[in-house]
Amino acid sequence: MMQVIRYPDRNSWEELLKRPVFDNSSLEKTVTNVLQDVKQNGDAAVKKYTEQFDKVNLENFKVSKEEFAAASKLVSAELKKAIQQAKNNITKFHEAQKEKVKIIETTKGVKCWRKSVAIDKVGLYIPGGSAPLFSTILMLGIPAKLAGCKEIILCTPPDVNPAILYTAQLVGIKKVFKIGGVQAIGAMAYGTETVSKVYKIFGPGNQYVTCAKQLINKEGIAIDMPAGPSEVAVWADKTCVPAFVAADLLSQAEHGADSQVILISTDENVIQRVQTEINLQVNALSRKEIALKALANSKAILVKNTKEAIEIINEYAPEHLIISCKNEDALAAKITNAGSIFLGNYSPESAGDYASGTNHTLPTNGYAKSYSGVSLDSFVKKITFQKLTKQGIKNIGKTVELMAAAEGLDAHARAASIRSKYKK
Amino acid sequence: MMQVIRYPDRNSWEELLKRPVFDNSSLEKTVTNVLQDVKQNGDAAVKKYTEQFDKVNLENFKVSKEEFAAASKLVSAELKKAIQQAKNNITKFHEAQKEKVKIIETTKGVKCWRKSVAIDKVGLYIPGGSAPLFSTILMLGIPAKLAGCKEIILCTPPDVNPAILYTAQLVGIKKVFKIGGVQAIGAMAYGTETVSKVYKIFGPGNQYVTCAKQLINKEGIAIDMPAGPSEVAVWADKTCVPAFVAADLLSQAEHGADSQVILISTDENVIQRVQTEINLQVNALSRKEIALKALANSKAILVKNTKEAIEIINEYAPEHLIISCKNEDALAAKITNAGSIFLGNYSPESAGDYASGTNHTLPTNGYAKSYSGVSLDSFVKKITFQKLTKQGIKNIGKTVELMAAAEGLDAHARAASIRSKYKK
Questions:
Q1: Cα separation of A247 and B421, whole Å?
Q2: Does pLDDT of A22 surpass 80?
Q3: Which chain B residue has its CA at the smallest distance from A343's CA?
Q4: What chain A residue is nearest to B245 in terms of C-alpha separation?
């Protein structure tokens, strides 16, 4: 069961809100070796590790047209319809993130603007295993397509679940490779005979994949964000429905034994009623054992007042925050650190995980203090432009010259003055 | 002088466009030790390293009101006016990057939106040394203020140039600390008795500072972007003014012996005339020796046609790109990889470095393939929100349930179904 912490002292918050620490350093050597091998030996190394780790011997990693067609037949019509609705909503929300070019004349004759330009080549990693995360293909593939990325490749370990292939096809990803783990990250980072090198890699993964992403990031390949176990904080008052809150906490707890679940309330009665509901609901879950382990690491925190609730949430910076309180909009306005916020009694986290339209790739581990979730922005660079007329450089030339001279940069000053003085 | 490469074969581009490689790994141990010392011993460690590296013995790192006032008197009225014009233009350009909240109803009863929220605490690092980069304070401090960051701290090594203190004060940064190098990055990352811990660190620096930023980034503190030596590519045709192109190439070359300068043209005559101009202009520079060293590493590349020019520029992904060609706007539309683009004969890079309004903190080293320069976005997180009505969760509940079930996540499905079925 969740541990109840009553009125914790401010000084204890940091310790209380700490995430489990995962020290990658013991994996680093293994991961580096696999990456280096893939860098040097390409497909041959990928093949070797696929045999070793996935126990599959593949002649061809690339998913064929026939495999796509076969997968499509294995997905039920009702699941297809569901995926289509999710796709529509995610598309609507991310399409609205397109930025119009605004030309700003900062000084007469000096026009500046910025333009979003797709990252040419991106790679998506979708883990395999017990939960085939085809929903993540929607969350990464849709904005990649909307941004206009020319080359989108997807790696996922064999055997590939049909829903993964169906969803990839639906969002228009044609290059899917049956490659998992560190070897997949290496293939996308360095390129092999069959997998082309990309400029940015997205997607979740286990600790090995996370470590591989960190290492290739150090070499200059961008990644979506640092990763950590999923987490939710629910802030509830007496207007909440305890059965809903319990369902939300359990939906996070079932992700993994390392998932974090936090309940915050100013009302001890709410905490008790939610705990009772958890006990009632947990038995019905197929992933009960996982959920119970996650709950054992989780906390129900009783705080003095609304102000303290806001402070503790901002200090925790949850990936997901559900506000099941009266005046939820006004309370949400005070939250400065969170990945995604779910307002009111009818907005479960799972709505955002699949179908509300927001992106489910969000900052964990307190990174919501400085990182945003994945959005259309994640798939573009914003290039700035400036165009000066002859009068424009005259209007700011003196400023450029004085500042450059004060910084000791003569040639910078000259590049402006040579133009200002030009007689033609 | 610049080496001229005539019609390089496509296969040779990768090698040709390679940046000098800086291997940080030899510094990593030293840098780690300093960081750990600052983490454990706070101000005492900062004081020790300030004595050791900066040869200054300080009782108090924080710049006092008196020091600010004294600095202001040492900056000339005309430089103040210049800094003010730059500030106005940078403010105008970055203010236009504010994003309005748009509420998207993705399905009836399902409303989603995102809101930019300032990163609470940010740290700016401004190097000292020969060139006091007060312009970088404008480029980082103005968007930090516009974003609404609550705590903005600035570290810069002693002795601090008056223009740095004047500019910090002008943009409203009150907490300036006379701390440089790795110890500054450590102080901002971990906090000390006098310097508070921040969530994101911005600013340029030498290889030690860069290495320190990489290391603290691995620990979860965000950084602006990976760093590398500054660079410019100039694409010129016969409509260019060779004296201007030479001035631009030299203004980049004077930055440092490791700066990269690339000239691209389809016209060999243009390359010759620019080289001649460089010879004429270089002697007038106070940083002539540095510029000559940088030029020795630099290249003038003669390409077959416009198409090839575009391809080679996109492959190089320059931090700065100047297009001194006819139809510069149409050509710029084909560029997908660059930090900032300068259009036409009257838009020198130095205009953007100081005063056009665009940000001069830009991706180097080919990172323009996947990273944007600093903007207002760099100082905010974009938090997403969703609010569903009871009808809203009914409208997408089935989709959530089906997708969650297909991913093997029961409790996710239940969090939706328990609401859809709720009878109150």
A1: 13
A2: no
A3: B387
A4: A415
pLDDT tens for residues A268-286? 999 999 999 999 999 988 8
**pLDDT confidence tier of residue A108, bands split at 50, 70 and 90:** very high
pLDDT of res. B21: 73
* Closest C-alpha to A53, from A143, A118, A151, A128: A128
Interface test with B, best of A399, A410, A417, A418 (most B CBs within 10 A): A399
Known catalytic residue at B319: yes
Tell me the angle at which helices A207-218 and A181-190 cross, rounded to the nearest 10 degrees: 20
CB contact under 8 A, B106 and A118: no
**CA closest to A138 among chain B residues:** B403
Name the catalytic one among B308, B320, B349, B360. B320
Nearest chain A residue to B104 by CA: give it: A93
- Pick among A14, A18, A112, A420 to test the B interface (most B CBs inside 10 A): A112
Chain A 67-126, CB below 8 Å of chain B: which residues? Answer: 78-79, 81-83, 85-86, 88-90, 92-93, 96-97, 102, 104, 106-107, 110, 112, 114, 117-120
Amino acid A116: pLDDT: 98
> B319, B328, B349, B401: which one is catalytic?
B319
Average pLDDT over residues A299-303: 97
Q: What mean pLDDT do residues B135-155 have? A: 98
pLDDT digits over B305-350, tens only?
A: 999 999 999 999 999 999 999 999 999 999 999 999 999 999 999 9
Whether the CB of B410 is below 8 Å from some CB of chain A: the reply is yes
CB burial class (10 A; 0-12, 13-18, 19+) of residue A389? middle
Phi, psi of A77 (to 5 degrees): -60, -40
B269 close contact with A: CB closer than 8 A = no
Determine whether the interchain pair B354/A412 forms a contact, defined as Cβ–Cβ distance below 8 Å: yes
pLDDT at A130: 65
Judge whether B365 is closer than 8 Å to chain A, CB to CB. Answer: yes
